[in-house]
Write a structure and sequence with these properties.
The protein is α/β, with parallel strands linked by helices and about 260 residues long. It has nine helices and eight strands. The protein is about 45% helix and about 20% strand. The structure holds S-adenosylmethionine (SAM).
Length: about 260
């Protein structure tokens, strides 16, 4: 799969922090209160954004394991956090090798929308078997809205969402449907599940983030190949002009999930 750029992740983080549902984040922290020496495993950790969101909310110290396959992102996490966290490089597809010993809470952000149904079911079965809880934030839910509409917005979104269903390294991805499948699967496996909307709001002053986001949307829509190139170019020119000159607001739907046994 294509790698995630640390510049992109850094630009996202302030928007992610505001988007995360505060109630579920607090409840995830609260779930560790009764554990004497809690260990948290953050999967697909990137540079450690979930660690930075969750750790200040904990009532007691917890040990964090940050897990990712990308050594450049783990290097960046090391620059941020030194040896206050364990950094582990590995492939999530090898679910049986996940370092789950003593883990009370598994966390993830912006991860499950990359995953296939088969991966989600295997993952839940494995986590469930160990009894850990799960806090999975910022799962893209297929919605995108701009403050200034364009006639092609719906067509672009349909192509983008269809492109999300390609293989992102876990088999054919469920994309915008992944959060519901994950929540259902957790319920079927005996978890009490809470979900909450966590929409991303990119304001006019998030110019660089909006530019990179648009580049990603345009690339996906070209690749999907359902719209004429001239239509895509018109839409992209309009959107880029809005971002650069007039300022526009863009909302991208996400869902947070907290599952506790
Ligand atoms: C969208 S990024 C989210 C990063 C971080 N959680 C955040 O919110 O900033 C997805 C992350 O999953 C990691 N990832 C993707 N596929 C993986 C795999 N098969 N094994 C381990 N990590 C993976 C990527 O390297 C990346 O860090």
């Amino acid at each position: 799969m294509s790698g995630f750029d640390r510049v992109w992740l850094a630009l996202r983080e302030p928007v992610d922090i505001l988007a995360r549902d505060a109630g579920l984040l607090a409840a995830a922290a609260q779930s560790l209160e009764s554990v004497s020496a809690p260990t948290v495993l953050d999967i697909g950790c990137g540079t450690g954004s979930t660690f930075r969101a969750l750790s200040p909310r904990l009532g007691k110290p917890a040990h964090f394991r940050l897990f990712d396959h990308d050594h450049r992102l783990l290097d960046e996490a090391r620059r941020w956090h030194g040896d206050t966290v364990d950094l582990i490089q590995g492939d999530l597809n090898d679910i049986g090798a996940l370092p789950l010993a003593e883990v009370s809470l598994v966390t993830a952000s912006a991860l499950f929308d990359l995953c296939s149904e088969q991966f989600i079911r295997r993952f839940v079965a494995h986590v469930m078997q160990r009894g850990a809880s799960l806090y999975a934030a910022l799962n893209y839910d297929g919605r995108m809205r701009w403050s200034k509409p364009h006639p092609l917005d719906e067509a672009v979104l349909a192509s983008f969402n269809a492109h999300q269903l390609s293989d992102k390294g876990f088999g054919y991805s469920l994309g915008p449907q992944a959060w519901e499948t994950l929540a259902d699967c957790l319920r079927e496996n005996g978890y009490t599940v809470r979900t909450a909307e966590s929409p991303w709001t990119m304001a006019a002053d998030h110019r660089e983030l909006q530019r990179l986001f648009l580049d990603g949307v345009v690339r996906a829509v070209y690749e999907y190949g359902q719209l004429d190139e001239s239509e895509i170019r018109d839409w992209a020119d309009f959107r880029r002009k809005m971002v650069d000159r007039e300022g526009s607001l863009c909302q991208v739907g996400h869902q947070d999930i907290l599952a506790i046994r």
